[in-house]
Specification:
The protein has about 190 residues and is mostly beta strands. It is built from two helices and 18 strands. The strands form nine sheets. The chain has a two-stranded antiparallel sheet with strand order 1-2. The chain has a two-stranded antiparallel ribbon with strand order 3-4. It is rod-shaped. The C terminus is likely disordered.
């Protein structure tokens, strides 16, 4: 509230989501609260509005003016009042000015979260990409032997996997030999 006339018994209120210091005597003393942006004008009656900061912005202090944008690769809920409430997007960990991309082999699937990046399980990778929201399964013929493998490794000539997502390779010759020995009997051998 503010009293536009000295010794006034009536103190008009500042617009919603705004405030003024004790013993205010002018409309210009009305300012938007933290988390709100806008401008208050007038002489005897306050006019204008204070709108909640939109997602992706914040405003720390009371005052008229705009909300500040969150740093790159972060986002915030509406009406945030602190930089540290700008939280990492998918593939980014941390908050405020301390946000970093997940390394290759690591991911973060949650948006607007300061959570740490998580290692891809063995048999999966991020295909050597950073800032990922998930992991890709290693195709047949490729493997990743440890958690956090940045990429799937080719089994190489004469070796393979039997299904996608494996973390080891088999020697193809062993598999072929086993199949041949089971089917390698001729009719004459059974007589």
């Amino acid at each position: 509230t503010f009293a536009p006339v000295a010794a006034s018994t009536f103190c008009p209120t500042c617009p919603i989501h705004s405030t003024s210091p004790t013993k205010s005597d002018e409309v210009s003393d009305c300012v938007c609260s933290a988390g709100y942006a806008g401008s208050i004008t007038g002489t005897v009656t306050a006019s204008g509005s204070c709108d909640m900061c939109v997602s992706g912005t914040y405003k720390t202090l009371s005052g008229n003016g705009d909300c500040d944008s969150c740093p790159n690769n972060t986002n915030s809920a509406e009406g945030e009042t602190m930089l540290d409430l700008c939280l990492g997007n998918v593939g980014y960990s941390g908050s405020g000015n301390s946000v970093g991309a997940c390394s290759a082999g690591y991911f973060k699937e949650d948006n607007m979260s300061a959570a740490n990046c998580i290692a891809c399980p063995r048999g999966f990778s991020t295909n050597n990409l950073t800032a990922q929201g998930g992991c890709a399964v290693c195709n047949v013929g490729f493997y990743s032997p440890i958690d956090g493998s940045p990429e799937c490794i080719d089994c190489g000539e004469g070796r393979t996997t039997t299904f996608a997502g494996q973390y080891w390779c088999y020697d193809q010759q062993v598999i072929i030999t086993a199949k041949t020995s089971l089917r390698g009997y001729t009719k004459k051998e059974f007589d």
